[in-house]
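Two entries, shown back to back:
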Amino acid sequence: MHDLQVKRALISAFHKEGLDSICRLLHQLQVEIYSTGGTQQFIQQLQIPCQSVETLTGYPSILGGRVKTLHPAVFGGILARRNHPDDEQQIKDYHLTLFDLVIVDLYPFEETVATTQDESAIIEKIDIGGVSLIRAAAKNFADVAVVASRQEYDQLLQWLASQQGVIRYDQRKWLAARAFAHCTHYDMAITRYFERFADTGFFFAEAAPVYSLRYGENPHQSARFFGKLHQLFDQLHGKALSYNNLVDIDAACQLIAEFQETTFAIIKHTNACGIASRDTVYDAWKAALQGDPESAFGGILITNAPVDEATAASMHEIFFEVCIAPDFTAGALEILSKKKNRILLKQKATIQSGSSFKTILNGILQQQTDQLNFQQWQEMTRPLTPQEQADLSFANLVCKHLKSNAIALVKNKQLIGKGCGQTSRVDALRQAIEKARQFGFDLHGAVMASDAFFPFDDCVRLAHEVGITAVIHPGGSIRDEDSIRFCREHQMGMVITGTRHFLH
């Protein structure tokens, strides 16, 4: 566990940003530098001596640059164990040149995949030699320091400058951990690309960058977020996002993505407590708030239309944690920014995820994201009015995003009552009816959506009693006919979609 005085370094970097400061400091510390190709030219242009790896291997860069460092003379100098008798003898026998520091910046595979569909270009950006150098140096961290990313450049500079070219054992071990993590991330990106063509049978998930959160669901739980939030949002104002904020924001974005018309939704604990579609964002906001103004307190607001000044002024009257919109006018931003902690997010992109994951027991569940909506429903009783058709379609989308068992009551494309997270379907309906009555809604002419089939006819009977005229559900119960018969006898509209939307 000795301190390491850096005397010789091997550098191979695709991106050269930040590398000049390291090379200058190494030169000041009289460190001998070896490199390859473009990196060697870059270092020499800084007027810093740099030897070619070819002087060790006796081979030029071959196969279009695919093979430069893959040679025992290079890897022997990295993997050789100091103070190991057999290794020391072979170092002498094979005249190995030992390296104390290895710096690598890998080919930009992810960036290439993001910018082209040219398979040959993508394949050429799979780094072979660089990853091998990193893994070799990280394995031998007892005798070699490895820097596997530009993210570690500043830390390396600080250590080299403050410790006169010495890197301690614990620092090398830290660098090795970071190096293996970078290799893992790099390999995961390559695997995700190839998973388009074959199911690998392994679980892979995005693992970087990492955001440290204040705490988890509760203050005594630590938490982090792994992902690239900057690709989805620009945060225009407010405090740092919390764990619970992120969970609700995800639910809000999933819900609003279902709607093409101007729509406003209010989310609380991942469930919609208000949502409405209208001609203007102001009217959609007012209608969404009207659905449950009590639960809206402290909620997450989201819309698929730019927020204007009039809407912002009305929103500013209540307390809410987060507002998400595709844009905010200058006046709206000025009003909403008056609360220093209020989080304002400009959504730049929709969530593109084909899979969802959940940790359970001692493993992970993976499933396809529920992106399916019915293609065509089946009318089981009487013809529907145009308003019923519009409301049933709206209600079905809302109900899809409520926790099961779920019921959504809708009238004029406005959620007026909802029941969610109940252990029986009829209890979810009772909850929805009570919510509607609590805020003075007239249920006559409303429609009802259910996330799963009706196991008995009790739900349609209760819906009829309060004035609901049409229902939508997936069907599939052995007793579907009981509910169909009741609706037919009482002139209630019923449609069956064949698509269930459980959400737990």
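entry 2 starts here
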Amino acid sequence: MKPVVARAAVLTLAILTLMAFTGMTHAQSGKAYLQLTDEQKETLDDVLSTSKDMVTESQEKLTKMLGEWQKLKDQFDRLPKPVQNAINDAEAAGLTAKVNYTLGKLKQFEGELKDVISVKEDIEKAINFYQRYAPDDQNPFRSLEVMSNLFEDVEKLLPDEQEYEAFKAPVTFMIRTGIRYFKEGIDLALGGLRNIQKQIRDRAGNCMGYVGGDASADRSDPRRKAFTDLGTSYTICYTGVRPVGGEIWSDETGTAVYIWSSGKWTRLQAGLGLVTEIFRNWKLASSSVLSADEMIRWCNSYQKLYIESRDWGAREFGRLSSMDLCRERLLEKRNSYGDWMSLMESVNTDRNLYIAKYIFDKDGIRSETKRLTTIMYDQLMFEGIIEDQEGNRVSGATVTISTPAGARTDQTVNGRYTFLMDYPEAGRNGAPIEITVTAAGYSDLKETSVIYNQCQDLGLLRLDKVDQDEEEDMSCGPNEYYDPVAQVCICNDGYVRNAQGICVPEDDVQPMAPDCPDPNSEPVFNSATGVYDCVCKDYFVPDPVTGLCKPDVQQILNDSDCSQWPNTRPLWDYARNEPYCDCLPGYSWRPDNLGCEEAGKLLASQADCSGYPNTQGVWDPVDKKVYCDCLPGYVWDEDRIMCIPAAVAQFSGFSCDNLPYTMPMWDPVRQEPYCDCLPGYKWRDDSKGCEPITATQIVQANCSHIPNSQPVYDAINDVMACDCMPGFVWNSSRTACEPERRRPAIDMNSLVDFMTIISGAITGNVPGGMPSGNTPVPANQQPPVVHQSRCNDTQKAGGDAPEVHQIDLGVTSGVFKFDYQTFDVKDQIIISQGGRTIFNSGCVGESRSVQVQFSGYTTMIEVRVNPNCAGSSGTAWNFTVHCPGY
């Protein structure tokens, strides 16, 4: 599948890249072309080819229009006086001269364009060409607007249009219809040239604002008009950064940064460097492109959070990657060394990838980092050996280690002991430690030291044996006993020491709850010590660095409920320290903000695939991207630059080489190719080839000089002739076959027919198909009633007369949904754009919903309803054209 390429900005990336080479010599610029990527070369070739096609089609339209205008002038003496006056006014205004002048400019443009195409390696020449033809107020293309207005003035000279004018005043009807066709031809050519102008404007600098790119020259581009309406003093240029559903533009300093999305401009509160960094890190962390809404949120609401998270990510990666033997042993003791390896492998030990994931907390990387670094940096390990004076290891000895952070007690095994103890890294070096050893039959031992290493070996300690008759110190008071290890008197169970130092029952002492200095903590009674401790409240945990209580983000998110907003999940707002609900990945907020909906199909319907003929946007749920893929019944060509009918691809790859004297033929019924004998040959009896049936073999036609053609047998003349392959038609000069999509949007043959009708009406010879006099006309054969309608509005039947609804879709290409209901009485509905049919229901009575693809020079479509197509009456129908993207 091909990536989405917007035709209106197809050279954006290429031009921005190529501008760096504009100061080179001719020889250097050729080298610059070789330095371009294959994608950039393909983009440059595409825009040059597109411009050439548009110029050629515009010339054809104007040339044919001039021919029909001349036919009308040839009938000048036989036309009504008002029409003669109109023709004189048009000629006095220079209509023919202006059309010829425009044709000359188009010819000049085409000639220079061919020159650029022939030496496209000369980057500087291509850029200068587009810059020189950038539109301005004096551009000759503007004369087409004058001609369009002139035709409107000509029509105003005719009598007011009346109902059933076709049979009440046929001459006026014919002239009015012909003039409207002329105007349509001019408007279509004007639309094509405006499209060329827009491409030139975008590709010659791709900037807009008050210098060089002011929208006053062409306000048909909604981006330019919207930016001009902002009234800023900036000139902004496209940066090449494209979030999903948006484009990033910036001034030359990178300070004023705007994003175009959802049909409006939004100022980003971050500089271009930070915007580009956010875009890059999101893609690195998620393997997908962030949406325009996410870009706005991170630049305008979470900018501080982003910077803090980025800095913390860099710090945490440094801490994680600083592995030594001590920390490795600590992780192994906690059975977490494998988890550390998995985390580092998940980011390929890449600092940038880790930071990107940490910023947006992908795959729970923050909580896992916190758990591992706590073990690596906030844990101590003490180890040593206990022996007696004879060097025998003492097992079962009780070893107690006390530090300012607390105490741990364990027993020796074969004389060895190992302790793991929680102690925050800050301030522990140099802190005092006290080691107490007790063992049956040995005197108690006390040693002191200081902490100087995270994994500290306390060395060898030796115990002295005691005499059996040594008496215990029994000098403790009532309700208490002597602890030989701690060498202190301790209250019996159920007793606590009061302020006078006497052990009394617990019920007789009422400890006071303290005022906790941390607002996120509360006093909790400790039954072991008999006092209150300040403990973090629910949903808060101690911060190992500051010691204060901070929100337990993961626990809060686990207990947060977003079910009232469909397709959302809880996320943490680090700026406000609170949870909020946001869309699941691949979903976007609905317009009513009451939930989220899948964004993929919406993005696909809005994708611009006009750069790849016969394709449509398709959402890939695996890669989370929109691609252009072929329409049903089409396949990619060999170069994957356009889709061609499947029949064409099937036929072009079909070979009859294994059957002598045969050639490929197309079966239109089965829609498949087959082999048949050459003219003058017949199948052999074994059906493994063909043999001559006449003395003279018919010469095989050579069609290699005619693109997209094939030899076809002419049975009448018994010769081989060249004809177009399936899916192609002859061009106007019959020198080549072109895809059917390139047929002019207006059928110029219809103009010839109308001129014939006009000529016949003047002489009184009304064609048989046209009513004359007062002959009654059936309702469904009367001229259609024309309405100006809007998309998303449901249109209902107004009677048995034909109706035409003109609807502005706001864009020139895309896909829209079309719902219609023709009930039991059959009707026909035809949708056209620029005179080209894009949907035909046939004569049906049904209810149906279809997706209609459109692409042309105009944003207007026409929906024509031909009622009672089966010859009945009393019809009822309705239809809705949904706006693209809905």
